Structure formats: C-alpha cells, structure tokens
Amino acid sequence: LLVPALSSPAEATDPPAAGDLDPASVPQFQQAMPVPGTLRPTAVSGTTDYYAMTMKEVDAEILPGRKTLVRTFDGSFPGPVIKAVSGRRVVVRQTNRLTVPASVHLHGAHVPQSSDGSPMDLVATGGGTKTYTYPNSQPHANLWFHDHTHHQESETVYRGLTGLYLLTDATEQRLNLPSGSYDVPISLRDARFDADGQLAYSMGDVKRTVLLANGKAWPYFEVAARKYRFRLFNTSNMRFFVLKLSDSSPFQLIGSDGGLLEKPLEVDSVALSPGERADIVVDFSRYAAGTTLVLDNTRPLRPDDPVEQLGKVLQFRVGGPAADTSTVPATLRTLPALPAATVDRSIELSMDETGATQDAYINGRPYDMDRVDTEVEYGATEIWTVHNASTRMPHNFHIHLVQFRVLERGGRPVTSGLESGLKDTVPLQPGETVKIQATFTGYEGTYVYHCHMFDHAAMGMMANFRVRRTRGNAG
Ligand code: C2O
Ligand code: CU
User: Fold this and answer.
1) The CATH number of the domain where 155 resides is what?
2) Which helix (H) or strand (E) is 459 found in, with range?
3) How far is the centre of ligand 1, averaged over its atoms, from the C-alpha of 467 (Å)?
4) β-strand 227-234 against 277-283: which pairing, if any?
5) Is 0.85 exceeded by the ipTM?
6) What is the mean pLDDT of the chain?
C-alpha cells in the first residue's frame, strides 16, 4: 500500500473510494455530543484509587441510527475518563477481551517502565490482565490512554481504543476556571466508514473523511450563554486540525499537553496534530440565545476536495444565560525554570516517499524493539534537535516519560501558543526543525519516542531510549 503522494498537506482527503460510505450522506449536527462518563473506582484507600477496565468490542452509534463495531475500554467509545490528583496513586487493572493483544500507554505520563504500556509489553487476548500503576508524581495535565502494540497500535486506536485521563493538582484547583458541567473534554478524530457503516481501515490510508467529536459524527452541543472550558484532544491517527470558531471570534488558550500555560493567550485558532491537546475557554455570553456557531477545521484541504463537511467539526447551540462566577486569571501557573542542558542530539524523521515500501525511519533506521537507540544518563537535561526530512509529509514527535519545552522552531525562539507550555508532542511540517529540551529524572528504564501519526509509528518511525545511572550519581 502506498503513502499517497499529494501535492498539498498529505493528511488531506481524497474522494471516498468505491465501497466507502459517502461522507456527504452523513447528516451534520443531528446528534448531541455526549460527554464521556467518569470511571468510578472499584476501591479507594488512603493513598490510592483502584480501577478496573475490560477492553472489549461493542457496537456504538457513531453515525445516526447505525451500529458500528468498535474496540473499547469498558464498552464506551471513546473510553471512560479517569480523574486523578497529583500525589495520589491510580492503579488500573486491565482485562483484554479483544481479539488482539493490547498495550495500554498513558500518554504524557511520568511513570515507571513497567506501567508505561510500551510496544513490547502486551496484555494477552482471551482475558489476559495487567495492572498498571500510575504514581501521578507530576503536575496537572490532560493525559490520555491508548493502545501501543507495535504494528497494531494504528488499527486498534483507529478502531476506538482510547480514553482520557484528567490529572489535576492544587495549582489548578486554586484557580476558578469553569468547572463541573462547564468543563468539557472533547476527543476529536476522523474516521472512514464502509457502506455498511463499519470502520474501514488500511495502513497508510488518509481517506478518513467523517469527523467525530466524543464518538459522534458531526454532533451539536448545547451550551448556556456563559464561559466554558473545553479540553480538546486530537486522538486521530493521521489528521491535523486547525480549529477556529465560525464567526472568527477570539477565545482563550489556557493550556497544552502538560497542563496550563503561564498566562492565557487570546487566539482565534489553535492547531492540533495527532496526540496533542489544547485547553481553551470560550465565552458564549456574547451571543444571543438561539445563536448557532460551528467549530471549524481550517486545516487546508485539497483544492479539489469535494467534502465540504470536513471544514466543520461540531456545532454549538447557545441557550439562555447561566450564572457564571468563573474567571480566567492573568497568571495561571509558573513553569519550572529551564536547567542548563549538557547533551545535544539530532533526530531525523524520514520515510520512503516513493511509496515503494511502507517504511519509516528515525535516524535512518526503522524501529527495532530489541535495539536501544539512545542512551540517556539519569538526571540529564538534553536538547534534541528534531528534523522532518520528508518533503511532502508532515510528522510529529512524541517522547514518553517526560514533558518537554519547545525552545526553537525553524531557528526562531518559541514564545507563544501551545508551545509556550509543557509539551509531549510537537508537530513538524515537511522540512521543519524544532529544538526541544527535557530532563530525564524519576525513573530508569527503556521508553520510546516516535511520530504520533500512528500509521508512521507502525511503519517504523519509532525508537527506544534507555535512561540509566552509569556514573553512580544519586540523581
Ligand atoms: Cu500517545 Cu507512544 O504515544
Ligand atoms: Cu509521521
């Protein structure tokens, strides 16, 4: 199968293939967007919340009036939300009732290797279990969990195996941001369906043309005329979003992958590559009751793209006013100071762009789970210069274990936008270079870094790094 050679952004869409459901036949703004339910602990101790989830296939109503078979955590598409607090442990027992093995990775989390959900650490099919322990020894952040089985993560995530993990702490809770039913996580992705309404998957395929928010195709969401906090997650395999409101009005960007920014930024759009998160506050009090507006996706599509719907994601229907005592303060948090880096590395992302093979590489080599590509001294602060060597294909770059800072993009210092905060995933347009800085403390062990366009990770754009004490330092 080919990596399609496209003249403009490579994740854009082609017309539906024969046998596909025509996205134009899927009505927009007909289904209400649900808010994913919060998972209840099975037990609670003084230090720990215990959860249990079963990975299984169920039918979900993604398209109005139709049933689609999906892979889920605990029967919900997308999966349930875990709410965690820094300093309080979460233990999740996962049971695998899928027809395939799975590995549950908690994206963005600072966890021991044994609970990282690495590509080589599988929960067997047929009722296999594994207990993951999340220490939550990191500040608040919008995390998510998903399959990471090598060569299969792309299909299994596509078929639904994702869930959200909202980690809070005293810094965040001290603020008076919109909360309760005014704090809404939204999991965004695309999907392609066959004529029977089943998910159509093939590696390297970018014709995923129906947009889903919290598991529904092009839903609407009723809001009161007041401020809302939306935590946006791009859980797509391949699709990039550039999101804006249809009236082009500004909103506040308050957080990124690793929690809140230092101060809110007024923006009129926000870009999310696969795996990235944006935390935003939209004030609907400026709209009259009965107003509708749309969250648009302005990521350029192909000029000949026939699917006008792709420019729209979700409709907001504004109702009457509601009391609102929430505020977005001028200062949200202080980020930890950047220590001086002692190691510089270069990382090059590339792939076979001829389409002759399905191979993708980091520093010229496809992923080998038995090879350590990068040795990191425990406690070290490192600068990684990451370059996208593809000429047409965007990529992005995700590191496990750490939250990092983006120092430069294209040789220029990064001072604003999502990248002014803590990140675990950064986008790279064709030819682009970013400089990021991370400090590797907390755990020794072997972890991965990879492109978070899962088809590319499955094709080999992934590598192992090992954090070890070799100098007898105490860390
Ligand atoms: Cu969200 Cu290694 O991944
Ligand atoms: Cu990629």
Assistant:
1) 2.60.40.420
2) helix 454-459
3) 18
4) antiparallel
5) yes
6) 93
- Give the Cβ contact number of residue 340 at 10 Å: 7
Q: What is the DSSP letter of 88?
A: S
Q: Is 435 in the pocket of ligand 1 (CB under 6 A)?
A: no
- Report yes or no on 4 lying in a domain: no
> 172, 190, 209: which is the final residue of a domain?
172
Whether pLDDT at 218 is above 50: yes
Q: Is any atom of ligand 1 closer than 6 Å to the C-beta of 105?
A: yes
Query: Nearest C-alpha to atom 3 of ligand 1 is from which residue?
Result: 107
Question: Does the pLDDT of residue 8 top 70, yes or no?
Answer: no
Across 207-221, 230-244, 288-302, least confident range: 288-302
Q: What is the DSSP letter of 365?
A: B
192 in helix, strand or coil? coil
- Per-residue pLDDT tens digits for 379-428: 999 999 999 999 988 999 999 999 999 999 999 999 889 999 999 999 99
Yes or no: say if 113 and 468 are a contact pair by the CB < 8 Å rule.
Answer: no
The token duo for 232 is 């946006």
Query: 235 near 78, Cβ under 8 Å?
Result: yes
